[in-house]
């Protein structure tokens, strides 16, 4: 029986960079999740008879919200829901399932790299029929709807069994519980040379994949250990836990420290990798060689043709604005266009749909291609493995040869976390108002050459996204970008992105911190970070 439940709007349901993310306690308020899901359903057309995909990264509250969403889908006209067994679907797997089964869209339940548990974070993201995150026009419409919502529709029914595969019925809705790994693993087999990678492992190549007790465990066990023959134990922290084992499932040098220490130590295997809460990010570390995500994007783009799925070459490369320009040099060498988009995967969808870009990436450890419409952590790991299987060189040598050809973009991101929102806003406002005065100004990194607030015009539909981050360029080609995070749930996070290019005939073996020291000083001089935030150093450097 369909029930109309009256409700009142919440004022704080504006989706950020990647969906609505809040503390679990916020989501536990009566009607909070229901309001947001109904706002999504009110905005989306074509629900009658359509398929909806539902899955998440297994974090605390995942199972409860899946049941809520199933009942609401039944009351809102959907004919079929595909849900991952146990409520599990990695973000890239959800994207693939949406595309493969012609779904109208999907609800991806995750707060990605944010920690999970009763005191931590939860999130809901809506993906559209192309498998990608809803574009801004849709998220803005959803937000507008949350502000005027008066009721939501649900179906009076008990919880559905989502732990065994098969078909269930909730009123008019068919619920199909699917294997969360099978379709995704089959897709990977079409893109990569599994027999070459199998031969690599059979020859004694060793890796560690840290799933960080998050969603990629089952995927990595199946693909790396079962299908590719990597020894048992290659995958660590391979069981998804609701609180990620109290860890922060962010594959960076702080939160994946164990992996980093192993890879830098005397017993390092050949290759190390990790992924995040929802499986869309990747960390790549060779033996004694960290690979920045920006460099990884460039290396993958330059070598993608070695994998069968990309032997045809690339149509174009897209990167988010704060990502380093290393990929730009590869695009130039390949003679293909390079697109610079705002932060967040939703801006790549149109370029991928239009066939204008094949590979995309972000400095935040997201890389992906046109095989789905999300970034994809395991995909990046498999592309690296395919390249290693063909080139048979250590990661460090591949990187050294890359820099020797293209030059090196020294790069780091400094995050200042949990700043009171008004202070962070004041910093950005002061920086924005200083922009016209900056060109020509002398700084510790030399004179400022350009200063603007990035605005993006989508080349496919001419939609404009303004105020996407302050960019300051220096005479020697170095760059600093300032923006506020749109994924946090506590206060504000200031992200400062630092980049310095050294040509192939320059010094390619500097310590990153040394190479970037003048830019760190310039960032302080230009933005007054310590004065505004009271912090004399970043919380996290990646
Ligand atoms: C961050 C990253 C961005 C990424 C987004 C979602 O956003 O910087 O590159 O697309 O997270 O990734 P922000 O607004 O906090 O800088 V995930 O893996 O959290 O879905
Ligand atoms: Co993620």
UniProtKB/TrEMBL annotation:
**According to its UniProt record, which cofactors does this protein need?**
Mg(2+)
Hey, what's the signal peptide range on this chain? none
Alphabetically, the GO molecular function entries are:
magnesium ion binding; phosphoglucomutase activity
Has keyword Repeat?
no
What's in the keyword line of the UniProt record? Answer: Isomerase, Magnesium, Metal-binding, Phosphoprotein
Its Enzyme Commission number(s) read 5.4.2.2
Example GO CC term: the record gives: cytosol
Known catalytic reactions:
alpha-D-glucose 1-phosphate = alpha-D-glucose 6-phosphate
The record's annotation in NCBIfam families points to:
PRK07564.1-1
Family of this protein: Belongs to the phosphohexose mutase family.
Instruction: Tell me what this protein is called.
Output: phosphoglucomutase (alpha-D-glucose-1,6-bisphosphate-dependent)
Q: What species was this sequence derived from?
A: Novosphingobium aerophilum
């Amino acid at each position: 029986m369909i029930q109309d439940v009256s409700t009142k709007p919440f004022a704080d349901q504006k989706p950020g960079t990647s969906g609505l993310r809040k503390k679990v306690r916020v989501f536990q308020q009566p009607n909070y999740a229901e309001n947001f899901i109904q706002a999504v359903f009110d905005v989306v057309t074509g629900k009658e008879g359509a398929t909806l995909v539902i899955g998440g990264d297994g974090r605390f509250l995942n199972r409860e919200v899946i049941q809520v969403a199933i009942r609401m889908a039944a009351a809102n006209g959907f004919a079929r829901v595909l849900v991952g067994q146990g409520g599990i679907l990695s973000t890239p797997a959800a994207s693939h399932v949406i595309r493969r089964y012609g779904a109208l869209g999907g609800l991806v339940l995750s707060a990605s790299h944010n920690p999970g548990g009763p005191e931590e974070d939860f999130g809901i993201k809506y993906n559209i029929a192309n498998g990608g995150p809803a574009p801004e026009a849709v998220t803005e419409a959803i937000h507008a709807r949350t502000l005027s919502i008066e009721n939501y529709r649900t179906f009076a029914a008990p919880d559905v069994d989502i732990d065994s595969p098969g078909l269930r019925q909730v009123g008019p809705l068919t619920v199909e519980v699917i294997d969360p790994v099978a379709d995704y693993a089959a897709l990977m087999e079409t893109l990569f040379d599994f027999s070459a990678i199998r031969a690599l492992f059979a020859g004694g190549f060793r890796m560690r994949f840290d799933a960080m007790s998050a969603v990629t465990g089952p995927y990595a066990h199946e693909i790396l250990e079962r299908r590719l023959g990597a020894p048992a134990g290659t995958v660590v922290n391979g069981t998804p836990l609701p609180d990620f084992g109290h860890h922060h499932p962010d594959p960076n040098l702080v939160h994946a420290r164990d992996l980093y220490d192993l890879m830098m130590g005397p017993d390092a295997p050949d290759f190390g990798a990790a992924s995040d809460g929802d499986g869309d990010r990747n960390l790549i570390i060779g033996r004694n060689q960290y690979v920045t995500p920006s460099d990884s994007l460039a290396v993958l783009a330059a070598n993608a043709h070695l994998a069968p799925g990309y032997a045809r070459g690339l149509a174009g490369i897209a990167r988010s604005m704060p990502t380093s320009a290393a990929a730009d040099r590869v695009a130039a060498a390949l003679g293909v266009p390079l697109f610079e988009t705002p932060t967040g995967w939703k801006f790549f969808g149109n370029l991928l749909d239009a066939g204008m870009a094949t590979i995309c990436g972000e400095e935040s450890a997201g890389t992906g291609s046109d095989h789905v419409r999300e970034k994809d952590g395991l995909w990046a790991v498999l592309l690296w493995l395919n390249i290693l299987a063909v080139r048979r060189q250590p990661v460090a040598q591949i990187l050294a040869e890359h820099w020797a050809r293209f030059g090196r973009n020294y790069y780091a991101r400094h995050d200042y976390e949990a700043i009171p929102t008004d202070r962070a806003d004041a910093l950005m406002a002061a920086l924005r108002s200083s922009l016209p005065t900056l060109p020509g100004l002398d700084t510790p990194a030399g004179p400022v050459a350009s200063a603007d607030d990035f605005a993006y015009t989508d080349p496919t539909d001419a939609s404009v996204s303004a105020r996407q981050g302050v960019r300051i360029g220096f005479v020697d080609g170095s760059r600093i970008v300032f923006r506020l995070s749109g994924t946090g749930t506590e206060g504000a996070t200031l992200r400062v992105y630092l980049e310095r290019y050294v040509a192939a005939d320059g010094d390619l073996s500097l310590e990153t911190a040394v190479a970037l020291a003048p830019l760190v000083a310039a960032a302080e001089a230009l933005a007054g970070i310590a004065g505004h935030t009271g912090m004399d150093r970043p919380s996290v450097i990646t």
